[in-house]
Amino acid sequence: MPKRVFVIHGDNDEWVPMERAEELRNRLSAKLIIVKGGGHFSGSDGVLDLPVALEELLNMAK
């Protein structure tokens, strides 16, 4: 079974620079999804769900 991996990164993340997301994408041969205006996606940021992740998972299941 081929692996299907994606990395989600907010372009406004103050904790993890975009370069790290790109490095992870390259190491894992993953798809990089950039969320415009997105931060670190932590509970302290008020993020309770991430629709882009659900959408990508549903697409992968097809």
Short note summarizing the structure:
The protein has about 60 residues and is of the alpha+beta class. About 35% of the residues lie in helices and about 15% in strands. The chain has helices spanning about 20-30, 50-60; strands spanning about 5-10, 30-35.
Question: How would you characterize the overall build of this protein?
Answer:
It is a single chain. The protein has 62 residues and is an alpha+beta fold. It has one domain (6-61). The chain contains two helices and two strands; from the N terminus they run βαβα. The chain has helices at 18-28, 51-61, and strands at 6-10, 31-35. Strands 1-2 form a two-stranded parallel ribbon. It is flat, with a radius of gyration of 12 Å. The model has no long low-confidence stretch (mean pLDDT 89). GO terms for molecular function: hydrolase activity. It holds the Pfam family Ser_hydrolase. InterPro entries: AB_hydrolase_fold (IPR029058), RBBP9/YdeN (IPR010662).
**Could you tell me the mean pLDDT?**
89
What's the order of the H and E elements? EHEH
How are strands sequenced across the largest beta sheet? 1-2
| Low-pLDDT residue spans | none
Organism: Candidatus Yanofskybacteria bacterium RIFCSPLOWO2_01_FULL_44_22
GO molecular function, one term: hydrolase activity
Pfam families: Ser_hydrolase
Protein name: Peptidase S33 tripeptidyl aminopeptidase-like C-terminal domain-containing protein
